[in-house]
Amino acid sequence: MVVVLRHNAIPIALNDAAWAKYNLGEFFKINDPATKAPATRNPFAHIKPGDLPLPEAALDKLVARGVLFGACNMAITFRSAALAKQMGLRPEDVKKDWIDNLLPGVQVVPSGVVAVNGAQARGCSYCFAG
Alpha carbon of 87 to those of 45, 52, 78, 99: distances in Å? Predict the structure, then answer.
């Protein structure tokens, strides 16, 4: 299985430190399931009881089962630049920090669209999920 994260799914690929540092829950409008407030940790990784209805869908558990995760470089560039502008930071610094804070098992791919097409060319089927 291959999962390609693009646009608003990019924070799924980032560790808790990046979520806290950049207020990703607020920026991406993702609430912590426990507090219902903007998440300051990644609720899609290392899922705690009550986070998601399917705890086996945690990114770390899926990676351990062999699921491949790609994070679109174009989306990382665009979304990190937007956040950098909002925070008064240099876009290249935020992008580098996001890439440095990717969760284990997540690989940056040049383009999410190209990655999906490549996976399809190797026999994967496409399923849009949000």
Answer: 25, 30, 14, 18
| Tally of structural domains, the chain | 1
Output the pTM of the full model. Answer: 0.89
Alpha-carbon span 10 to 12, nearest angstrom: 5
User: Is 38 inside any structural domain?
Assistant: no
In a domain, 128, yes or no: no
The predicted-structure confidence for 95-123, as pLDDT tens digits, reads as follows: 999 999 999 999 999 998 888 888 888 88
Instruction: Compute the distance between CA of residue 13 and CA of residue 5 in angstroms, rounded to an integer.
Output: 8
DSSP 111: -
**Mean pLDDT, residues 56-82 taken together:** 94
Distances (CA, A) of 1 to 65, 81, 116: 10, 30, 11
